[in-house]
Amino acid sequence: MIELRDFLPSDVPDLVSWIDGPGSLILWSGPSAFRWPLDDAQLLSSLDTERRRRRSWTAVETNAPDTPLGHISLAREPHASTGRLGRVLVSPQARGRGLGELLVTSVQQLAFNELHLHRLSLGVFAHNERALHLYERLGFVREGTLREVCWVEGVWWSTVEMGLLDHEWRAARRH
């Protein structure tokens, strides 16, 4: 059985090992403060600076809580009832098992049931069709495209902004 627990500093080396190039770094983190090659120090530093605004979790097997299988985070706006889902990543060994869906649905439940957020948003690169389909299946609505926002390995990448409101999520769960 898979469960989420808080992201720990001891998870950092595993997560760093899942990022195999500049493209996968940006696919995971967006055009952020991280630089290629990603290293433990960068990730640990971001944990310290973002701790007040961003919460992160690690997916693990119940019987192997020290072996990370996935990662996800939620950044909250301090003066609004909104959150931003981000940094969704599944270890290469755990892909294809539905872990991405488990990560997202777990954070949706936390965002709407425990944190009582009104809105959950995310950005996903337009060419990441697998993620786009997952997010749509889980209730997120495409709200717009930001064209050619990130230059990655000689190609411009566009992002799709998506959102989900608490009443939409509750209505979908009833059906």
Topology readout:
Blueprint: E1 2-6, H1 12-18, H2 22-29, H3 40-50, E2 54-61, E3 64-76, E4 82-90, H4 99-114, E5 119-125, H5 129-137, E6 141-152, E7 155-165, H6 166-174
Description of the structure:
The protein is globular, with a radius of gyration of 16 Å. It has 175 residues and is of the alpha+beta class. Strands 1-2-3-4-5-7-6 form a seven-stranded mixed β-sheet, with helices on both faces. It is built from six helices and seven strands, in the order βαααβββαβαββα. The mean pLDDT is 94.
CATH superfamily: Gcn5-related N-acetyltransferase (GNAT)
Question: Number of DSSP strands?
Answer: 7
Q: For the largest beta sheet, what order do the strands appear in spatially?
A: 1-2-3-4-5-7-6
Low-confidence stretches: none
Radius of gyration: 16 Å
Structural class: alpha+beta
Distance between the termini: 26 Å
Approximate strand percentage: 35-45%
CATH class: Alpha Beta
Key descriptive features of the protein:
37% strand; globular; Aminopeptidase; seven-stranded mixed beta sheet; single chain; alpha+beta; 175 residues; 6 helices
Q: In brief, what are we looking at here?
A:
By secondary structure, this protein is of the alpha+beta class.
